[in-house]
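Why does residue order matter? Because the sequence determines the fold. Keep that principle in mind as you read this record.
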Amino acid sequence: MNVMKRVFTCTLIILIIALTVNSGFGLIDAHAMCQSGNGVSIDVFTQKAPFDGRGSNQSSDLFGPQETVDLYALVTVNNIAEDGELVTFVVTGPTGLSNNTIFYLEGQTNSTGIAEAQFTLQIINQTQVFGKWTVVGYVQIDGGTYSDILTFQVNWLIEFVSIRTLNENLTGQQSFGKDGYVGIEVGLKDNAEVGENATVEITIFDVAKVPINTVTIPNFTVPPNGETWYIYSRLHIETYALVGDASVVAVALTQNNTPYCPGISTNFLITIQNPLTPNFVDAAIFLGYVPAMAEPDQLIAIPMTVRNQGTVTLDNLNARLYINGSLLDSETVASLDSYSYKAFSVVWNTTGLPFGNYAITASVQTFPNEADLSDNSYSFTTNLTTPSTIGISIHDIQVTNVTCSKNKVNQGETIDISVTVANNGNFTESTNVSIYYDNNLIQTQPLTGLTPCAEQTLFFHWNTTNVPVGSYQIKAMASPVPGETNIANNTFQDGTVTINSPVSPPPSFPSLTYLELLLLFMGIAIIASLAFLIFLLAYRRRRRRKKPSKKPDYVVLVHPHL
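Structure:
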C-alpha cells in the first residue's frame, strides 16, 4: 500500500513538473509573440512607390532587365525608428537563373530607421532575369530575429504586342504604291502597375535596307496593367524607294534613348501602282494614379489625359469624369493635333461620403470612322475606408511658405521668390513646384529627393518686364505625388505684389565709330575756331568805335562880327 502511494506521489510530481515546464515554455513563447507583435518590426520595400511593397510580406511593382533595384528595410521598436541596426537582405532569383541564384546584401539603419542596399538586374542574356524574385530581410534585436519577405517580377516594362500595315478602311494590306503612304498600326502594353512614358520611333526601309521615312511619337504614356494601346501612323513612300520587299520597324525608347524592349517589325511590298493616302482617327482617354484605398473627407486629385493617337487633328473633344455614374467634371479641348495630348487634374471632394467602393470612369466621345473604340473610356475602383485599413503608407507634400523679396516694384525689375516645401509622409518624394501671379504661371522647377519629415527651399526669379501694371496675388503650388490624397495643402498664397509704371530710362546716345568720332571732333573744332574769329573781329570793331580822336593843344577864337 505504501509502495502504491509512493508510486502515485512520484507520478503526480512528475506530471506537475512536466506541466510546469510546458507551461513555462508556453509563457516564454507567448512573451516572445507579444514582444514581436508590439515591439520589433521590419518592413522591406523598394523604390517603386506607390507599389513598393510596403507592409508585411508584400510584393513590389515590376522591374525591367538592367534596372537597378533599391532595397530598403524600415526597422522600428514600438513604432520608434531604430538607428544603427544591421539588416541582411537575402536575394533569390527566379528558377533556372544561372549563377548568382542567391546572394546576400547588408545595410545599417540610419536615424530614420532605414537600411539600404542595391543591385542591378544585368545578365548577359537579359531574359534570364525574367520571373519572380524574392528578398528576405533579417534583423536581430535583443536576441530575437525578425524578418519580412518581399517579392517582385522582372519583365519588359513596355512590350510590343503587334504591328501591321493597313489601308484607310483599317483592313490589313501588303502592297503600297510609290509616292503614296503606307498605313501602320502598332500595339503596345505596359506590364507594370504604373504608366511608363516612351518615345516611339517608326521607320520604313526599302528592299536595299535604305531608310525611306520615319515618324517620331514623343511622350507616349502607355497606361499600366497589361492592356494593349494602339498608335496609328502613315509614312510617305518616297519616289527614290526601290520597288520590292520592304519593312516597317518600331522601337520604344526611354528618356535616355535606351530601348524598353526588343523592337517589332513586319514586311510589305512597294509597287509603282495604286499609291494610297490613308488617314486614321483615334481619340483616347486615360487616368493617372489614384490610390485603390483612401480616407473619406479628403480632396483627391484625379489626373485625366486626353490624347490623339491618330494622324488627323481632332476638334472639340469632350472629356468627362464620372463617380459611380454621376458626372463630376467635364473638360473640352478645342483642338488636338496628331500625337499630342491635354492633361487635366480633377479634384474629387470626398467629404461626407460613406465608406465603400466608388467606380471612377473617364470617357471621350467617339468620332466617325474611328480606328479604335476600346480606349475611349477608362475606369477603376477606389475604396473609401478607415485609416487602419489603409495602413501607415503616407504620401503628403505641403508648401509651407512663400516669400517675396519685394512687395512693390517698377515694371521691369526682378523679384526673388523663395518657396519652402515639406514632406509630411513616409516616402522620399519628387515633384514639380510652380509659382503664379494670380493664375499666370511665372516658372516651374523640379524638386527631387525630398526625404520624409524634411524641407527644401527653391528660389525663383520673376522678371516683371512684360507684366502689366497692377497688383497680383502670389501663390506656389506643388504637383500631387503618386498616392497623395490630401492636396489641399499643396498650395500656399503669399500676399500681393504691386507692379508700378516703369521709370523713364535716361536718354541714350548712339554708339559711333572711330571715324565718326574723329569727324565729330573736327567739326566741333572748326565751329569753335569760326566762332572765336567772329568774336575777335567783333571785338576789334567795338574797340575802334570807342577810341577818342586827337584834338589840338591850342584854341582859335573867332569873333562873331568878323
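The mean pLDDT is 85.
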